[in-house]
Amino acid sequence: MKSEVRTKSLTSANAAKKNSEKEQSGKWRAILFSPASAIGIPVILLAAFGVLAVYSASYYSAEVTYGDRFFFMKKQLLGFVLGTVALVGVSFFSYEKLAKLKWIAPIVSVVLLAAVFIPGLGRENYGATRWIGIGPITIQPSEFAKYGFVIFTAAYVGQKPQRMKTFKGILPVLGMGGVICLLVILEPNMSITMCIGMLMLALLFLGGAKIKHFLIILTPVLLAVPLLIIAEPYRLKRLYAFLDPWASPQGEGYQLIQSLYALGNGGWFGVGLFNSTQKYRFLPFAESDFILSVIGEEFGFFGIIALFAVSGWIIYFGLRTAARSKDTFGFMLASGITMVYAIQTIINALVVSGCIPPTGLPLPLISSGNTSLVITMAAMGILCNIAKSQTGGWFFGKEKKKV
User: Fold this and answer.
1) N- to C-terminal Cα separation, the chain
2) What gap in Å lies between CA 47 and CA 60, rounded to an integer?
3) What is the torsion angle, in degrees rounded to the nearest 10, for the CA atoms of residue 34, residue 38, residue 44 and residue 48?
4) What gap in Å lies between CA 349 and CA 356, rounded to an integer?
5) Mean of the per-residue pLDDT values for the chain?
6) Residue 12 and residue 182: Cα distance in Å, rounded?
């Protein structure tokens, strides 16, 4: 009798243990395969790869210039650590509270953008004043401005979506976007200006602006682009270099030619990690704006396809998160964050491959630059929080309804 009781007790204990293990396993699977993880994990993996790519692209120039082959890698690694902490931390912060920053976020962005013109505070590099320097620390205000504008627009549209149907209703969005674009172009930084302009148009469209209003907006914009190009001689030279880089192989066409050499040398499968030749000071900005060229040379066509497959994954789940948002603010916020990442990624790829005129724009999460990396990862943390607020857990599963 005692033996039967003991056997039943052991059976019950084993069953309870198995149930507990299944529950723990289920919790971990729910975390790993949640919509938030579908965004957060690829972002962290891509940023980690960026640290390796920056080291590979920069160790020679860093050693020659600074006497430390790990110079750029150490800065990127610091940005990766801070960015990962920001992503995880922000993912637990309710995105709905960001609506309170409707005016604070863009005003701070404008103040920071204006601060680059203060003597002694703004840092000039390659003829452009795009950074604020405080001792050894430098920040790029335009990185804050992109997301400050997204928060403003999302909160504005979220309060009264119906007002976006009138031209008067979209004026505040146009005005705020115009002020930010004006300050950025004065740095000068036409590439970021174009990104913010495209972002503004995308958010207006998603917010419900009418087609006729788009025509009113686009007419002066299309007229302004040629004037902005003519206003700065270097932009006109870049346009000529794009049309025929071989006309000035040692001048404006040099960078594009070296980028194409790198991509061509990579072939289908690449020359192998650390084996790029273009990074030996043949290709300017190999660790930043043209890091994709070095990746293409070392990993080949299939390596770039794999890289953009991950980027496409992030964009897909960002848009999926926006589509499943429970409110207009969440929809606009998720759409804006995803659009910033998508626009920059696409433009960088087009520039590196010679499909559009050369412009200085980093590849998000990959290119060297702490401000861009930390801010982008923090923004992805917001996207994760929006995803966490939605029901349903599996990547491609149907959304569960609340009971």
Assistant:
1) 47
2) 21
3) 130
4) 9
5) 86
6) 71
